[in-house]
């Protein structure tokens, strides 16, 4: 079958050394993880994520333990892997505990009681993304029905859950296709992404659509009382126990013992590293929209190269998003707004680690098998 050269998901991405901008100086990069530095508040250039991580660790007097011999490599895509080594690197590069002053510990002074009613609502920028997100969520169940998935859950007249089924490979396949389409739609709402060539779009989407999927599924899961499962957008569940919900006749312990262990590790990691944080922070739809927007504006691949020539527009959107998130956090609770802002930014690292976890699992899982995915999804993952 001939594939159309116009299909944006079937075009291979080719890097071009000539399009790469000059390497940033030491003052422009975070000395902890290598991301772009935004502040030198505590003694050394650091990105906002590492600055917030350092401040939170010191203020809350947190103690971490490395499980790998205190020798973990801390880099931008993997900075959440080991908090112990990340904090140790903060100290090694020159961040100082005594640079955190009293005002840092308690956040900014209270706002005036003369705040207007307008300040109690999300900004127009955020409202537009929350609206799009709501529209996309409303399309989830019809999308699964159109693609032939059976009903995944049922509720009675009192809206009490009476039935939920185990996710199948078909559910995962449809979930991947849905996430890719909606992630692309989200990106096209942002001028820097919309202006990219097809090949570069594909390189961004190869990571971003999994982050998009993870945020939607985790948000849905965090709303449920059952804390032992991970829900897909159609309400089907993935349980850490590979055999949970399988008919006894289909179980061959010896044949899939290794897969069962990998499956347990995968689901447990998602539940512990991402779902638990969403549930603890009670992340809402507005904050989910912010996370999705930040992740596409700041992809793990160098945004300086990806969005070359659009830096001013990109920085304007990113600044607006960050300012609106801070204002929204302060609006929710002025006493803990700054701390919540930092906690939400720290979720970005957990989500990126979760994306790597999903990607790796598609190589070994029969449930998340990349060979069963839609051609568009398969070509993105195999990029």
Automatic annotation (TrEMBL):
<keyword id="KW-0539">Nucleus</keyword>
<dbReference type="GO" id="GO:0008270">
    <property type="term" value="F:zinc ion binding"/>
</dbReference>
<dbReference type="InterPro" id="IPR000536">
    <property type="entry name" value="Nucl_hrmn_rcpt_lig-bd"/>
</dbReference>
<protein>
    <submittedName>
        <fullName>Protein CBG10390</fullName>
    </submittedName>
</protein>
<feature type="domain" description="Nuclear receptor">
    <location>
        <begin position="27"/>
        <end position="102"/>
    </location>
</feature>
<dbReference type="GO" id="GO:0003700">
    <property type="term" value="F:DNA-binding transcription factor activity"/>
</dbReference>
<keyword id="KW-0862">Zinc</keyword>
<dbReference type="InterPro" id="IPR001628">
    <property type="entry name" value="Znf_hrmn_rcpt"/>
</dbReference>
<dbReference type="InterPro" id="IPR013088">
    <property type="entry name" value="Znf_NHR/GATA"/>
</dbReference>
<keyword id="KW-0479">Metal-binding</keyword>
<dbReference type="Pfam" id="PF00104">
    <property type="entry name" value="Hormone_recep"/>
</dbReference>
<dbReference type="GO" id="GO:0005634">
    <property type="term" value="C:nucleus"/>
</dbReference>
<keyword id="KW-0675">Receptor</keyword>
<dbReference type="GO" id="GO:0000978">
    <property type="term" value="F:RNA polymerase II cis-regulatory region sequence-specific DNA binding"/>
</dbReference>
<dbReference type="InterPro" id="IPR035500">
    <property type="entry name" value="NHR-like_dom_sf"/>
</dbReference>
<feature type="domain" description="NR LBD">
    <location>
        <begin position="135"/>
        <end position="383"/>
    </location>
</feature>
<dbReference type="Pfam" id="PF00105">
    <property type="entry name" value="zf-C4"/>
</dbReference>
<dbReference type="InterPro" id="IPR001723">
    <property type="entry name" value="Nuclear_hrmn_rcpt"/>
</dbReference>
<keyword id="KW-0804">Transcription</keyword>
<keyword id="KW-0863">Zinc-finger</keyword>
<keyword id="KW-0805">Transcription regulation</keyword>
<keyword id="KW-0238">DNA-binding</keyword>
<dbReference type="InterPro" id="IPR049636">
    <property type="entry name" value="HNF4-like_DBD"/>
</dbReference>
<comment type="similarity">
    <text>Belongs to the nuclear hormone receptor family.</text>
</comment>
């Amino acid at each position: 079958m001939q594939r159309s050269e116009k299909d944006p998901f079937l075009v291979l991405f080719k890097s071009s050394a000539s399009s790469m901008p000059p390497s940033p100086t030491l003052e422009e990069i975070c000395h902890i993880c290598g991301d772009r530095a935004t502040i030198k508040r505590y003694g050394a250039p650091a990105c906002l994520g590492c600055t917030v991580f350092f401040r939170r660790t010191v203020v809350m007097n947190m103690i971490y333990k490395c499980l790998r011999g205190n020798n973990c490599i801390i880099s931008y895509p993997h900075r959440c892997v080991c908090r112990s080594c990340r904090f140790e690197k903060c100290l090694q590069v020159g961040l100082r505990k005594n640079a955190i002053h009293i005002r840092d510990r308690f956040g900014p002074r209270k706002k005036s009681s003369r705040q207007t009613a307008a300040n109690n609502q999300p900004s127009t920028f955020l409202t537009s993304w929350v609206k799009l997100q709501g529209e996309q969520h409303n399309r989830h169940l019809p999308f699964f029905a159109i693609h032939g998935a059976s009903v995944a859950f049922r509720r009675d007249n009192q809206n009490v859950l009476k039935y939920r089924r185990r996710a199948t490979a078909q559910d995962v396949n449809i979930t991947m296709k849905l996430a890719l389409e909606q992630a692309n739609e989200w990106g096209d709402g942002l001028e820097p992404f919309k202006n990219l060539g097809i090949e570069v779009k594909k390189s961004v989407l190869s990571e971003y659509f999994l982050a998009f999927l993870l945020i939607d599924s985790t948000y849905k899961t965090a709303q449920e009382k059952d804390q032992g499962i991970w829900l897909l957008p159609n309400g089907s569940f993935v349980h850490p126990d590979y055999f949970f919900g399988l008919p006894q006749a289909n179980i061959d312990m010896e044949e899939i013992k290794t897969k069962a262990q990998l499956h347990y590790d995968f689901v447990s990691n998602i539940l512990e590293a991402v779902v638990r944080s969403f549930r603890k922070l009670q992340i809402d739809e507005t904050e989910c929209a912010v996370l999705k927007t930040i992740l596409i504006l700041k992809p793990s691949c160098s945004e300086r190269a990806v969005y070359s020539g659009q830096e001013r527009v990109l920085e304007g959107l990113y600044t607006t998003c960050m300012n609106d998130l801070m204002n929204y956090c302060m609006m929710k609770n002025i006493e803990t707004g700054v701390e919540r802002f930092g906690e939400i930014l720290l979720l970005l690292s957990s989500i990126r680690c979760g994306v790597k976890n999903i990607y790796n699992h598609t190589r070994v899982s029969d449930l998340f098998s990349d060979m069963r995915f839609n051609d568009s999804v398969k070509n993105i993952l195999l990029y």
